[in-house]
Amino acid sequence: MDIRLDNEVAIITGGSRGIGAAAVKLFAECGSNVVFAYRSNADAAAAVVRSCPGGPGSDGRVIAVRADVSKMRDARKLIETATKRFGRIDTLVANAGIWPADPLPIERLSEREWDEMIDINLKGVYTVIHHAVPHMMERKRGRVIVVSSTAGQRGESFHTHYGASKGGLISFVKGLSTELAPHQILVNCVAPGWVDTDMCVPVLTGRREARRISAGIPLGRVGRPEEVAMPILFLASEMASYITGEVLNVNGGNVLCG
Ligand code: NAP
């Protein structure tokens, strides 16, 4: 059985690069309309639109919206763009996030850095869900897929604010899944391990560090963005119609180690 999402509407945050960009392309290839958010990189966003089936604009089936998910008004604008253009929301993928590569010991971790992390990675998931869910409730149908991390399950030394934000997402998803189940809205997490995206460039470009990281992953390599996008697609599809409140690990076995 092929996964088809013809005429559905997906909103994907952080769709201009990395995992989000792979998800935008995959959802579009499966027939979905897609509205995706990016924060600042308009060129990258335009390139993603061009790369989707149908070429530039894909008959308006793939739309990029500049929206900072940490801001309530931007989140509202993103959701309104989707509902005005397409009249419904089937799936929300809350993927946008940041991970500063430099190690930050707790005594150097500033209030500004803590607040920025929580505002984007944790509040930035709440903002879009808050505005999208009423539209799903109206239709008694919806999928919410939140991108957490291995760090949300085992923590991350020297990136403790990142681990805290991603761990918070997991308990947010668990609570929300039972709250929204009566509305037939399924809420799940995908938790990637190391994935080869811009986020990890500072770490993965160092050959010794890249080798050390790969050696610590049971499958012996970091993941590709498409390898996270496909499990996201699975959770959005009919194949996952009885799964809610779950954390789907996509990490080559990495969460089992370390
Ligand atoms: P990435 O390549 O750095 O891309 C991040 C995306 O998020 C970009 O599209 C960026 O937009 C967008 N973004 C950042 N802050 C935003 C904001 N405030 N509002 C709206 N959009 C924002 O990252 P990635 O590796 O694909 O990561 C995607 C998700 O996977 C993140 O939540 C990350 O924590 C998680 N994750 C990644 C890894 C990994 O190894 N890569 C591992 C575990 C979990 P611009 O292009 O405009 O900047």
Strand content: 5-15%
Mean pLDDT: 95
Just name the CATH architecture: 3-Layer(aba) Sandwich
Order of helices and strands: EHEHEHEHEHHEHHHE
Which small-molecule species are bound to the chains here? NADP nicotinamide-adenine-dinucleotide phosphate
How would you describe this structure to a colleague?
With 258 residues, the chain is an alpha/beta fold. The protein has one domain (9-250): 3-Layer(aba) Sandwich (Rossmann fold). Helices cover 45% and strands 15% of the residues. It is built from 9 helices and 7 strands, in the order βαβαβαβαβααβαααβ. It has helices at residues 18-29, 42-51, 72-86, 111-139, 151-154, 160-180, 201-204, 207-215, 225-236; strands at 9-13, 33-38, 62-66, 91-94, 142-147, 185-192, 247-250. It has a 7-stranded parallel sheet with strand order 3-2-1-4-5-6-7, sandwiched between helices. NADP nicotinamide-adenine-dinucleotide phosphate binds at residues 13-20, 37-41, 44, 67-70, 95-99, 120, 124, 147, 149, 192, 194-195, 197-200.
